[in-house]
Design brief:
Bound molecules: acetyl coenzyme *A
CATH architecture of the largest domain: Orthogonal Bundle
CATH class of the largest domain: Mainly Alpha
Strand order of the largest sheet: 1-2-3
CATH topology of the largest domain: Citrate Synthase, domain 1
Number of domains: 2
Number of strands: 3
CATH superfamily of the largest domain: Citrate Synthase, domain 1
Helix content: 40-55%
Largest sheet: 3 strands, antiparallel
Shape: globular
Number of helices: 15
Distance between the termini: 33 Å
Length: 357
């Protein structure tokens, strides 16, 4: 028994394949590199959902846009209840207010709603009023406009679009597994998405990119990259943006995001520092964790890309959720179609009642 269920196959899927040895991610028969930066998020979602998620006759992009607009009307009355909540907590609150029987509680509606929830949560945490969605706009450009409060530059919107496609699905990661467990109980789409969001928010999963920027800031302040990293490892702490349960080599998403960051232009001081940190961290991890094969993961360049498009670090995980929601919903649909409740067993290690006494 492995407490982290390492190497356990817990689902069969047509959605995506993570090859940890080769550092390859295949989504519905396409390498990630053929999708991210090549097709828009809505097109990638259509590809992912094809014949798996019921979307009705209307074009998916239209339905996602309508979902953003309907969600805004639904979430706006909650704006007085967000005081003191981090963006990811506000997002959780927004989604929890969707009734299972509401028109929004469809896969396309919820995919739109996660975009609006992420943007509104980011605005609320900054003390700014929410921005009304434009249902006719692309998902990435509209999320960025709603979150930042201004019309984004086309290259920034393209970079965010490439990011949302990059994270759209990734095998049976912790949040996707949570979505499948909840979907298997027939609790419905909304509950599956909320369960996944709660799993995503932890720093060992989707909560890492904000701390990556904190780490880069602390390193910049220290003035000595190698000494700072060595001291973290010496203290038993993990380097944020490095390591992965499945990849034994570079996470392919890191390079896709690095390329998107380059296309965005403006080699900032932070990007230059990040490249030095990456190189020093890989050397140190190879020395100190020899045999473990730790490399850079998706979160390292996520942090730099989302920062470069103008999003605040506390909003990185909500934006991640807006992209990954397409994968969660597709996995929930697959799990529901299988009709099988997920219910593993545990091994009892406690005492038994003493019947002889
Ligand atoms: N920094 C330092 N050491 C690490 C790191 C790291 N980033 N990652 C793993 N290790 C070490 C562990 O301490 C452990 O060492 P030990 O055997 O001496 O105790 C060894 O490598 C094996 O680690 P595991 O815990 O088995 O790795 P696991 O597969 O459970 O962890 C995880 C994967 C959670 C991603 C881990 O690498 C980590 O914590 N990384 C930092 C946080 C992070 O970047 N999270 C985002 C992941 S990507 C995503 O979910 C979207």
């Amino acid at each position: 028994m492995k407490s982290g269920m390492d190497d356990v196959i817990a689902a069969e899927t047509l959605l995506s394949h993570v090859d940890g040895e080769a550092g390859r991610l295949v989504i519905r028969g396409h390498d990630l590199e053929a999708l991210a930066g090549q097709v828009g998020f809505e097109q990638a979602a259509r590809l992912l959902w094809d014949d798996i998620v019921e979307t009705g006759d209307t074009d998916l992009a239209t339905r996602i846009g309508q979902g953003r607009a309907v969600a805004y009307a639904h979430f706006a009355p909650l704006s007085g209840r967000l005081e003191g909540l981090a963006p990811i907590e506000a997002m959780r609150l927004f989604l929890s207010a969707i009734a299972d029987e509401s028109a929004l509680a469809t896969p396309a509606g919820l995919l739109g709603a996660t975009g609006t929830a992420a943007a509104m949560a980011i605005r609320a945490a900054a003390g700014e009023p929410a921005i009304v969605p434009d249902p006719a706009a692309g998902h990435a450009v509209d999320i960025l406009r709603m979150a930042a409060g201004t019309q984004p530059a086309p290259e920034a919107a393209r970079a965010l679009d490439a990011y949302l496609v990059t994270v759209i699905d990734h095998g049976l990661n912790a949040s996707t597994f949570a979505a499948r467990v909840v979907a298997s109980t027939r609790a419905g789409w909304v509950s599956a998405v909320i369960a996944a969001l709660c799993a995503l928010k932890g720093p060992l999963h989707g909560g890492a990119p904000g701390p990556v920027l904190d780490m880069l800031d602390a390193i910049a302040e220290s003035g000595d990259i190698r000494a700072w990293l060595a001291s973290e490892l010496q203290s038993g702490r993990r380097l944020m943006g490095f390591g992965h349960r499945i990849y034994r080599t570079r996470d392919p998403r890191a390079d896709v995001l690095k390329a998107a960051l380059r296309r965005l232009g403006g080699a900032t001081a932070r990007v230059a520092l990040a490249e030095q940190v990456e190189s020093a961290a890989l050397d140190l991890l190879a020395e100190r964790k020899a045999g473990r094969r730790l490399d850079v993961n998706v979160e390292f360049y996520t942090a730099l890309l989302l920062d470069a498009v103008g999003l605040p670090r506390a909003g990185f995980t909500p934006i991640f959720a807006a992209g990954r929601a397409a994968g969660w919903l597709a996995h929930a649909a697959e799990q529901q179609a299988s009709g099988r409740l997920i219910r593993p067993r545990s091994r009892y290690l406690g005492p038994m009642p003493d019947h002889a006494a």
